[in-house]
């Protein structure tokens, strides 16, 4: 689960976008596979950028998760580890900012999506340098919880659950259908923000339930182990950041 949130995540991996650019944000989310929304409408409330996969964008953004106080507490990070988490988040954010400087709209976010694999690898490699094995495991559990149904497009999850090609196709069809519904819902984000987020929350739950129905009992057990104990991400408001 992901708690309702304002903009505060400590250090964002991606540059912030004002609320008055929500229409652009909507197109951005669509272009990036709606990862932020699939990771939870709460992240859409906060979300001022996107991305996909392990450690990049949306709920799966390891840099953002590590900079969140509630996640740090759950992982029992020491002060030195918190400082290194800040450094990693800043480094990744600056790398994305530099690579997308001067780009706008679809071109900008296409570039960000192209960078995702590189950023994913760097985020995970960097985190492993200062996290203990048990902390890294819990971080990935929280990450998969935040990703929701989007987690099943993660190669690591697919391999761990030993998804068949048929299951991958079925799951992809479910997610794509959900994305289409999300695109329609996003049209109302400016006029009815809270109502839209409530509908997105329900759609997220329904989508995940449909995906889980495609799993065998053994796979369902393995998935529960992947996400671990339920965790609610809490976010502190950022002064002047709005909601």
Description:
By secondary structure, the chain is mostly helical. It has one domain. Helices cover 63% and strands 0% of the residues. The chain has 13 helices and no strands. The longest helix is centred in the middle third of the chain and has 22 residues, at 79-100. The chain starts with 21 loop residues before the first helix and ends in a 16-residue tail after the last helix.
Distance between the termini: 19 Å
Biggest β-sheet, characterized?
none
The radius of gyration is 17 Å
Encode the helix/strand succession as letters: HHHHHHHHHHHHH
Topology of this protein?
Elements: H1 22-31, H2 35-38, H3 41-46, H4 62-66, H5 69-75, H6 79-100, H7 105-114, H8 116-128, H9 133-147, H10 155-161, H11 165-186, H12 193-212, H13 217-227
Helix pairs in contact: 1-7, 6-8, 11-12
Keywords:
single chain, 243 residues, mainly alpha, 13 helices, 0% strand, globular, disordered N terminus, disordered C terminus
Can you summarize this structure?
By secondary structure, the protein is mostly helical. The chain contains 13 helices and no strands.
